[in-house]
């Protein structure tokens, strides 16, 4: 039912909808872009022969349509009141809440791990990266600083503590995505360029991880130990996980470093403390996975031999980028 | 803007629609109906707002087109659910 030409068509409209939403000069155009986004994403994820994907697309539809209808109502209330351009009022709280529900950020995150559990890896990649763009940019147009700082703290804590008890790789990446949303929302409050930088590096890291899991068809954590994996694939997994957690010599440290720099310049000391501590918890559970994958070898089955001759160059390239890009990026200024 | 009482009607309709949406229902169709009720309240709100701008109703038509698209998408998901599960009860969700 879902062949490639269908997918291309809906993907094209998906990309176009984000462009409509972020380049419109009225709030109503933004709402239209969000609606078209929903309309074109649902056919990509629904497949009526599978019980799981029907339930997934239903949950996605319900939450996203509620959020965009609420967004429109708040736009109309803002339009009818007309008197203030002040950003720190209750209308901005309601508009920001509906956009946060669209993104899957805490405290409106309960649909996100469920839906991520029901989608394939490619659909997850679309959900985690591209679907965050237009709510983020709309958030930057009219945000309430105090409300968003509170939401950032909630995001960080839920993203880090929620992932501690997961065995499914998709849910793990979902909670990691919620945590990274906290960093991204703060970077929006500073400047949009900084958000773009963080977002590009984050989507590059997520794409490396998801392509690895997709090629090896891995959905759960026990599949990391049971398979007879090549050492280089495990090394690539280690590098990507540590890069996602934000450890220094890897690529993922650079955007977090810049955000911490801005945090300290603007004297957000308590917020810096929360950013640091939740990053520690996330790195803890990444290392727990990788440690088991490296040290323990449950089975050495002769017939499950993952030959990845055609794809080794991609893995080597992604490891090289993750290790060296932070140091190479300083060579720009020479 | 001589009459301010009309705003209370829109906000009341909107909140009641939201309340039914988030309540525990037996059927999925009730949730989709509440979504259409919220759309109706926004339609009314739009109508009154645009009446104060020299009766310029074109935006209302654009809004109507998009909400109808969204409603039909909801119905198609309902149909897909009935095809696979056999009914539209919320209790038949056991996977996620």
TrEMBL record, chain A:
GO terms for biological process: mitochondrial electron transport, NADH to ubiquinone. One of its GO terms (cellular component) is mitochondrial inner membrane. One of its GO terms (molecular function) is NADH dehydrogenase (ubiquinone) activity. It is a multi-pass membrane protein. InterPro entries: Complex_I_Subunit_2, NADH_UbQ_OxRdtase_chain2, ND/Mrp_TM. Residues 24-281 form the NADH:quinone oxidoreductase/Mrp antiporter transmembrane domain. The keyword Cell membrane does not apply. It catalyses: a ubiquinone + NADH + 5 H(+)(in) = a ubiquinol + NAD(+) + 4 H(+)(out). It is found in: Mitochondrion inner membrane. The chain crosses the membrane at residues 60-81, 93-112, 147-165, 172-190, 196-219, 231-248, 268-291, 312-333. Keywords: Electron transport, Membrane, Mitochondrion, Mitochondrion inner membrane, NAD, Respiratory chain, Translocase, Transmembrane, Transmembrane helix, Transport, Ubiquinone. Its EC number is 7.1.1.2. Signal peptide: none annotated. Pfam families: Proton_antipo_M. Core subunit of the mitochondrial membrane respiratory chain NADH dehydrogenase (Complex I) that is believed to belong to the minimal assembly required for catalysis. Complex I functions in the transfer of electrons from NADH to the respiratory chain. The immediate electron acceptor for the enzyme is believed to be ubiquinone. Core subunit of the mitochondrial membrane respiratory chain NADH dehydrogenase (Complex I) which catalyzes electron transfer from NADH through the respiratory chain, using ubiquinone as an electron acceptor. Essential for the catalytic activity and assembly of complex I. Belongs to the complex I subunit 2 family. This is NADH-ubiquinone oxidoreductase chain 2.
TrEMBL record, chain B:
It is found in: Mitochondrion inner membrane; Mitochondrion membrane. This is NADH-ubiquinone oxidoreductase chain 4L. It is a multi-pass membrane protein. It is an enzyme of class 7 (translocase). One of its GO terms (biological process) is ATP synthesis coupled electron transport. Core subunit of the mitochondrial membrane respiratory chain NADH dehydrogenase (Complex I) which catalyzes electron transfer from NADH through the respiratory chain, using ubiquinone as an electron acceptor. Core subunit of the mitochondrial membrane respiratory chain NADH dehydrogenase (Complex I) that is believed to belong to the minimal assembly required for catalysis. Complex I functions in the transfer of electrons from NADH to the respiratory chain. The immediate electron acceptor for the enzyme is believed to be ubiquinone. Keywords: Electron transport, Membrane, Mitochondrion, Mitochondrion inner membrane, NAD, Respiratory chain, Translocase, Transmembrane, Transmembrane helix, Transport, Ubiquinone. The keyword Electron transport applies. The chain crosses the membrane at residues 6-22, 29-53, 59-82. Its EC number is 7.1.1.2.
């Amino acid at each position: 039912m879902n062949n490639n030409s269908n997918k291309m068509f809906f993907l094209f409209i998906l990309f176009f909808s984000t462009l409509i939403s972020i380049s419109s000069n009225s709030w109503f155009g933004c709402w239209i872009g969000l609606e078209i986004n929903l309309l074109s994403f649902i056919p990509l994820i629904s497949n009526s022969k599978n019980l799981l994907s029907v339930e997934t697309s239903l949950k996605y539809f319900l939450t996203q349509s509620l959020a965009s209808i609420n967004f429109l109502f708040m736009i109309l209330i803002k339009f009818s009141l007309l008197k203030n351009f002040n950003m720190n009022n209750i209308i901005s709280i309601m508009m920001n809440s509906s956009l946060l529900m669209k993104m899957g950020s805490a405290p409106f995150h309960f649909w996100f791990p469920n839906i991520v559990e029901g989608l394939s890896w490619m659909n997850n990649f679309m959900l985690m990266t591209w679907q965050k763009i237009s709510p983020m940019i709309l958030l930057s147009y009219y945000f309430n600083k105090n409300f968003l700082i509170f939401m950032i703290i909630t995001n960080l804590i839920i993203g880090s503590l929620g992932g501690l008890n997961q065995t499914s790789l998709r849910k793990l990446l979902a909670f990691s995505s919620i945590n990274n949303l906290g960093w991204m929302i703060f970077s929006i409050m500073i400047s949009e360029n900084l958000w773009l930088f963080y977002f590009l590096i984050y989507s590059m890291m997520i794409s490396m991880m998801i392509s690895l899991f997709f090629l090896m068809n891995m959905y759960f954590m026990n599949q990391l130990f049971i398979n007879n994996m090549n050492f280089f694939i495990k090394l690539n997994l280690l590098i990507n996980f540590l890069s996602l957690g934000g450890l220094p010599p890897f690529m993922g440290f650079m955007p977090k470093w810049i955000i911490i720099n801005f945090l300290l310049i603007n004297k957000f000391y308590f917020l810096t403390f929360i950013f640091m501590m939740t990053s520690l918890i996330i790195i803890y559970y990444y290392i727990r996975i990788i440690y088991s994958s490296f040290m323990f070898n449950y089975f050495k089955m002769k017939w499950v031999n993952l030959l990845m001759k055609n794809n080794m160059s991609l893995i080597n390239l992604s490891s090289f980028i993750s290790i060296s890009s932070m140091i190479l990026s300083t060579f720009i200024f020479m | 803007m001589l009459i301010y009482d009309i705003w209370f009607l829109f906000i009341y309709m909107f909140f009641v629609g939201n309340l039914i949406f988030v309540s525990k229902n037996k059927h999925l169709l009730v949730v989709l109906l509440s979504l259409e009720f919220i759309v109706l309240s926004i339609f009314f709100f739009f109508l009154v707002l645009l009446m104060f701008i020299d009766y310029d109703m074109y935006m209302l038509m654009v809004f109507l087109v998009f909400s109808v698209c969204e409603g039909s998408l909801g119905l198609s998901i309902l149909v897909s659910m009935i095809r696979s599960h056999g009914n539209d009860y919320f209790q038949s969700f056991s996977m996620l």
